[in-house]
Amino acid sequence: MLAACSSNSSTNTSNGNNANGSAPSPKSSNPHGYSNDGNNYSGRITFDNFEPGNTYEPGNAEHPPQNAPMPKLPDNANENSVTGFHATVAYYAAARDYLVKTGSLDAVKKVKLAGNDAEENEALAKTIAQGIEQKTWYVDPSAWYELKESQPAIMSDGNLLFKSVYTFDYGAESVTNGEIKPVKEEERVYTQDCDFRGRYNPTTKSWELNLSYGTKSSGNAAASPAASATGGASDPAATEEQAANPKK
């Protein structure tokens, strides 16, 4: 059996939702007939479906990270099932990592996003591109999600919810104006709670995701002037502008 929870939220974040606000609801229903698919999805999301031919190369003083493998949307992501929902979430996690390494929106655009998520991704991509023009980037940034439960919960509106923790690691080194510098250990990694809410669209046979981020729990949101000027700690795109603008 899948657990049931409320689809309501009570705390404002960048998407107007609360990553910690889905309380159990005895009145929840399961109109779509979702059932446990027998897998344990808890822990760090893994993904192994990539376009062939690329060998990843971290950045250096001459260039930003290169040849990051581009994820491919799995065939089962079109299923209206727990398996399909997880496949879409796992793909998005890989696509987000691809974005922070490359500044490319090609992968994340293949998932329909609700709220402000698409705009935040676009802002991050723009800032990364601006940083590259200024010969400013992180050498080996990475991003990933860890799911808190083995199976998603069913919200009171009948849609699915995975609770997770989002981690952004800037890596050990940055390049500013072509010069390599170490990243301060206390500023290197930050984490945030993140809810993945999923709604299946039977017309397009795909999942629409709504991501709700909670308060940043570690790291330093003010490490970059660009980040502190454009958003708060609950906005991962604003904080991640450091990925294109390391502290000078």
Automatic annotation (TrEMBL):
Residues 27-43 have a biased composition (Polar residues). This is Transcriptional regulator. The lineage of its organism: Bacteria, Bacillati, Actinomycetota, Actinomycetes, Micrococcales. Residues 1-26, 217-239 have a biased composition (Low complexity). It comes from Rothia dentocariosa. Residues 54-209 form the DUF6318 domain. Residues 1-75, 216-248 are annotated as: Disordered. Pfam families: DUF6318.
